[in-house]
Amino acid sequence: MHFTHRPYIPGETIAAIATPPGEGGVAIIRISGDDAIIVGQKIFSRSLKNTPSHTVKYGHVIDSSGKRIDDVLAIPMLGKRSFTGENTLEIHCHGGALISRRILELALNAGARPAGPGEFSFKAFINGKIDLSQAEAIAELIAAKNEIAVDAAEAQLEGKLSEKIKDFQEQLTEIAAVLEARVDFPDEGLEFSEEEVIIADIAAISDKIKNLIDTFQNGRMIHEGLAICLVGSPNVGKSSLMNALLDKNRAIVSSVPGTTRDILEDDMRLNGINIRLIDTAGIRETTEEIEAEGIRRTHSAIADADLVLLVLDANKGIGEEEKNLIAKMPEAKTVTIFNKIDLIKGDFDPKDFPHPVKISALNKWGLEDLTKKIDEVIWEKGPPSKEEIIITNIRHKNALQKAHESCERLTEGLIQGISPEFLTPDIRNALYELGSIIGTNVSEDILSAIFSKFCIGK
Ligand SMILES: Nc1nc2c(ncn2[C@@H]2O[C@H](COP(=O)(O)OP(=O)(O)O)[C@@H](O)[C@H]2O)c(=O)[nH]1
Ligand SMILES: [Mg+2]
Q1: Of the residues 233, 235, 239, 240, which should be mutated to test ligand 1's pocket, given the most ligand atoms within 8 Å of the CB?
Q2: Of 33, 185, 407, 423, which sits with the fewest C-beta atoms within 10 Å of its C-beta?
Q3: Above 80 in pLDDT, residue 5?
């Protein structure tokens, strides 16, 4: 067994700084492996011998000559009770970059090996403390950029995804047993009704897998955020709306048409989601070279956007030009905004347009309606609840997709009355793919690839 090109030695003692580089209140040096306490004792002033697991001991880190380096807290976490499942000693020292490096060096001189990226988590995985999807959840939790991503990673870390996968595995294993029994004892064929039950069972699992795959769209959005693009004719108030949404004067607003000529971007949050808001050059016929380039960029921004906010001037009304523009927008991902509603005397009915909403960017009217509308469009089935399991990892999605295809082939085969020995590979394959999510059967290369994306000390 290898871990990132190095032979993996179970119980080998590793050490790393677990806190981010730079200055801080405290820094943590983590030592884990069979000899963690022995290594730690060599650099710690007080005896750790009878210190119970998970208790804090105040003392000093000392070098080989006995010189005091820093006053620290030492926390032993022993055996199976630690995160890695192996003896662990955490040393909390003052948070200077040099002091923590010095203590790490002392630990390395005392017999620990420098930990590779994610190696503590790798130990936890190998020792069965967490499965692969839980290990990946740790990385996602660390990288989470909004509250929803935190919730999703926490749920996965708790093992909610693993439970679901194991549930699928159990059900498929039972069905596999029935099918394999038929390969071995073909004369004891199933009753017709039993056949129907199996088909229905597989179809049910297949649907559940599909539902899980469908959560990936939301998962991607939660992780990567959304690109939202403001589009419309010149002077309709796109830049004003950009500023109103960002709540700052980011874009130049002017009554001169064609002011915004390049793409302008800024970040904001909308109900927990990270948004990249993009203001564009107004779309119109032009012979002016720079403006024409701006308009070309607008079109490519529309193509790349997850959502288009098409801004129209409600006061000007909807003419041929506007209708042409609407027709060019991707309907499913367009919100039609009728701006300058403050200039309209009577009533204005914007129905018949994709996801219409009335606002005044100048007066900041209707912005709440707009965010609600955006929410409606981006979360097809509403935002995920805290408890909902969301697939956020492309590796999991790919594995689920392959498992789903196998289940579909299996159902099809059973319906067509194909003999079971030709169907068992499909069910084995589905089980294999599900197993890869929680790490029961993944290659060393895949493991290394996953853990090497972690930070050192995690
Ligand atoms: N009355 C009114 N004027 C607005 C509103 N939004 C923008 N404007 C004005 O319309 C003009 C063009 O605005 P701007 O944001 O630069 O439009 P853009 O060309 O689409 O980016 C400016 O004079 C704005 O003050 C609005 O809601 N009501
Ligand atoms: Mg503008």
Answers
A1: 240
A2: 185
A3: no
Q: What is the pLDDT of residues 124-133, one digit of tens each?
A: 999 999 999 9
pTM over 0.85: no
pLDDT digit string, tens, across residues 183-221: 777 666 556 567 888 999 999 999 999 999 999 988 888
**Ligand nearest to the backbone CA of 358:** 1
Q: Considering the domain 141-215+389-439 in this protein, what is its CATH number?
A: 1.20.120.430
Check whether 113 has a pLDDT greater than 70. Answer: yes
d(CA 253, ligand 2 centre) in Å: 6
Ligand 1 centroid – CA 327 distance (Å): 23
Average pLDDT for the chain: 91
Whether the CB-CB separation of 458 and 138 falls below 8 Å is answered with: yes
* Closest residue by Cα to residue 408 from 430, 390, 436: 430
Q: Which residue has the tokens 């367009």?
A: 334
In the chain, where are the structural domains located?
2-129, 141-215+389-439, 224-378
| Cα 279 to ligand 2 centroid, rounded to whole Å | 7
Q: Give CA–CA dist 338/340, Å, rounded.
A: 7
Distance 301 CA to ligand 1 centre (A): 21
CB-ligand 1 contact for 85 (6 Å cutoff): no
Q: Please state the CATH superfamily assignment of the domain spanning residues 224-378 in this structure.
A: P-loop containing nucleotide triphosphate hydrolases (3.40.50.300)
Does the structure show a pLDDT above 60 at 23?
A: yes
Ligand 1 pocket residue status of 265, Cβ below 6 Å: no
Identify the nearest ligand to the CA of 262 by its number.
2
Edge to edge, the sheet with strand 356-358 lists 264-270, 273-279, 226-232, 307-313, 334-339, 356-358
CA distance 376 to 387: 20
Helix axes 119-126, 132-143, angle to 10 degrees: 150
What is the residue with the minimal CA distance to atom 17 of ligand 1? Answer: 237
For ligand 2, a single-atom ion, which residues have Cβ within 5 Å? 238-239, 260
Residue 157's contacts (CB-CB under 8 Å, 6 or more residues apart) are 130, 134, 137, 138, 141
List pLDDT tens digits, range 271-305: 778 999 999 988 888 888 888 888 889 999 999 99
280 Cβ below 6 A of ligand 1: no
The yes-or-no verdict on residue 394 having pLDDT over 60 is: yes
Nearest ligand, CA of residue 255? Answer: 1
